[in-house]
Amino acid sequence: MVSETGNFGTGTFTTSLTGLSVNTRYDARAFATSSAGTGYDACTTFWTLANVPADPTVSSPAATTLDVTVNNNGNPTATTQYAISESSANQYVQATGTLSATTGWQSEDAWGSITVTGLETGSIYTFCVKARNGALVETAFSGCASGTTCTNPTSGAEIAAIQTTCYGDTPGSLHQRRSCQRVGR
User: Fold this and answer.
1) Model's pTM, two decimal places?
2) Average pLDDT estimate for 23-42
């Protein structure tokens, strides 16, 4: 309970509530006590804001998929929902792992580590996350994290040193092999 004493006169007064938890519903009611008795205001309900999520984790590159994990930054799991944006295509990850223009909202537990599917090989994808509280008020986007799908070169094709290659759907590092010429005995 927050309490202030003093002479407030008649009409509206304000007070600051501190120490409130992130993305939490509060019910509040003001009252005043004087020599004439105690008067109560109507009850009001409000939600505190969610924290902006931490940067997502992008991992497990394959030819046409990347895994994205939401990092909550102290938001309560029961009341916070998240949307994952792929910024280069201006689309959102859906619960199925596909990309769409429609914002997909889920809890951190529901997202888990989502495998984003239908991506182009050898391409960079950048993911950002935003949260919303129980009153559906959205935060700004988190910082972003990027991942590159791997490339399966055709026989005899050259690939750049920055690309990740796949053997089937398994990513692997590109190694440069140099041959040494033996001089003399």
Assistant:
1) 0.78
2) 88
